[in-house]
Amino acid sequence: xxxxxxGQDQYLPFNPSDVLVHRTVPGPISQGFLERxxxxxxxxxxxxxxxxxxxxxxxGPYVVDADGRAYLDFLTGAGSLPLGHSHPELxxxxxxxxxxxxxxxxxxxxxxxxxxxxxxxxxxxxxRDYKIHFCGPTGANxxxxxxxxxxxxxxRSEVVAxxxxxxxxxxxxxxxxxxxxxxxxxxxxxxGVHFAPFSYCVRCPVGLEPNSCxxxxxxxxxxMLTDAHGGALPPAAIILExxxxxxxxxxxxxxxxxxxxAAARASGALLIVDEVQTGCGRTxxxxxxxxxxxxxxxxxxxxxxxxxxxxxxxxxxxxxxxxWAPGAHTGTFRGHQPAFAAGAEFxxxxxxxxxxxxxxxxxxxxxxIFSVLESEPAVRETRGCGLMWGIELQNPxxxxxxxxxxxxxxxxxxxxxxxxxxxxxxxxxxxxxxxxNITPDxxxxxxxxLADLIREQAQTYPFEATxxxxxxxPPDARPWAAMYLATSHxxx
Length: 492
Fold this sequence. Notes:
Elements: H1 3-6, H2 28-40, H3 47-50, E1 55-59, E2 62-65, E3 70-73, H4 76-79, H5 88-98, H6 110-121, E4 131-134, H7 139-154, E5 158-162, H8 171-175, H9 180-183, E6 193-196, H10 216-226, E7 235-240, E8 243-244, E9 250-251, H11 254-267, E10 270-274, E11 298-301, E12 314-317, H12 337-352, H13 355-370, E13 379-385, E14 388-393, H14 403-415, E15 418-419, E16 421-423, E17 429-432, H15 440-460, H16 478-486
Parallel strand pairs: 3-15, 5-6, 5-7, 7-10, 10-11
Antiparallel strand pairs: 1-2, 2-3, 4-12, 8-9, 11-12, 13-14, 14-17, 16-17
Helix pairs in contact: 5-12, 6-12, 10-11, 13-15, 14-15
């Protein structure tokens, strides 16, 4: 890591080794903030319900609440803080730009030019002639722009999305999102969306034995696109996350991703790859699509682009697709100059400090730490790549997703000073999005704590389980369930 980051711990008013200790959450001052928030803010707020702290300040991987208690942050603003909080070099870059020029709409500036150079330079060499479009400041707006561009360029109207996908909660983005509970209350979402199964092989979306075939989902999509009696018109676009984040940290199988890309080409559809969460190094390459050997026609990026959590969103696309008329997709805040200045500096730091190599090394370290969970009956699967990881928990007696257990683990982790997220079906996946420059010692400390908490919570969690449920489980899960029922959790 760079000198600024490496020496950061010495300025902290606490000993980092003392962070992961048990404490009551929330503290009294945080509780006051939370109560006022509940009275005054929308019922739609979400994070404070499961992470009930009020933040005072943060630095690097640490967050300090209003009661002066420090936490390790393995959520990092839902991935928008790739180098942790308040990275000093990024703060300097953004602060310098604040005193020079802040909001430029889509006028050219030196800051924007440097940011554009930086982003295009991180694409694979054969894609560096792609064009870039600056969107409104959210990932959902980038999704909106990508779909509009695909429809404009192809003259078509249909879009293929995938089960488990999450592309945002605005009206268009929600139409492409598989989470039924968010879509159900809102009628008349964008028409013409067809959902295809994603390669979530541990819980096969087409009802086959888990892990029995990684390519049936791709075959389904190929058939949908070519069947003259299938009912689906040729789509303008196929939109794909290569690692589903909110869906439960589910990496696409390599063959699945490659066949979907080939199916898009064969059908004349444009392949939109949603890199809002996976981009900027999260998976160990700058973009996740590089891991799969495919090239998107349009890619969407946001979250981590500025490196410091300042909102910004872009799409990048093939030059021949630039068929928009002037003003076809605008937004007042698409010219945020401090975000551009910080974002260009972020790319420079990533290269200088070899952060991508660190992401890959820490990902391997996490995989090794979590290997102790492979024999835990309540763990369905550990999965991830780079520094994007999920642990799916299950009821050992039925194999059903154990959202209650995941939330109990999240709460216990918070009380031990570790901030995590949950997601996936029934919120049964404990999710990790640590800073990309996290050190080996911090990774070991946090990963070992989490593994221990999962095993401890699984031993005492009040599952509902019966011996008759064993017959409903796939063969590979039955030995675990039988062991579970025969020992600490006898059948009813």
